[in-house]
Predict the 3D structure of the following.
Amino acid sequence: MIVRLKNVKRVRAKGRTYWYHRITGERLPSDHEERATRVLEINHTSMGTHRKITAGSLSDIIAQYKQAPEFRRLTDRVRHEYATYLDLSAEKWGPHPVTIIERRHILRLRDKYAETAGKANKIITVLRVLMTFAVDRDYRRDNPARDIKKLAMGAGHLSWPDEAIERFLETAPPMMALALKLGLYTGQREGDVLAMSWHDYDGERIQVVQSKTGTKLSIPVHSALREAMDAQERVSPIILTTATGRPFSTSNFRHHFIRARAVAGLHGLVFHGLRYTAAKRLAEAGCSLKEIASITGHKSLAMLEKYTRDADQERLSSAAILRLENNSRTKNGKPL
């Protein structure tokens, strides 16, 4: 007989699987029988207060939000991401009335994750959306997350220097080399690269529907990428696959990509940095922001300006000095 366990969350990290109780956060045994016994014990003895959701509690607001059009119209990827942080909030304050949550409580939760600024900022983003939902439904009068500042992200994702790209391609297995070229020449996010299929590629262009925004793109394939794709054996409908021909999961892909990066002797460079590199290279080639956005799919030109700032500065400064030299008065053939 198969017993379906409630409130169990599975997490894959560094090639291993970990199990947690979704509500209490307790780490569960890896052995199936021991895990089942412990989960049933927790659900029976300590989850009684969580089974019934009180009207007006944070858990109630979260449950309503997950059924609302505001949540349902998000892409699958964003819904999954939001659900992760909504569950985290429910673990913290779920049974409590949404009205008692104050700015200081949210700041305290943000600061708890200050060492991982990206996670801390996502918590703020999701709580801001949730509290707006609560205000719209008259569960509270204000949004305590509205004016909370996000934490500085530091330098962000680093662009890949040309020499790093060359070194990676020299030492990486063919599938990881192809992954790098897909990221570099399409400027797409990791998840969208992993989802690319041979059906999307016609030998000249590759079709992309971005999971984060739903944006549809038709991207001309660079000759270097086309050569790599045409040389790759098609063992699955998905372009990037494991040695057994199965599509990569995110964690498995990152494991292989990080290992290939380590073999190349590279550090501090991540796959998402290739999106930055793609935008920067297009800027260096003289492309306008709208031309770059037609490849990367960026909706915000302000974000693209951040990506291309270094390339613009170098190009503009060179043009400025050239103009200065051409305009300089000379004496005895030398500039004054």
Remarks:
- The chain is about 55% helix and 10% strand.
- Residues 301-327 form the longest helix (27 residues).
- The beta strands are 8-13, 16-21, 27-28, 205-209, 216-220, 330-331, 334-335.
- The first strand starts at residue 8 and ends at 13.
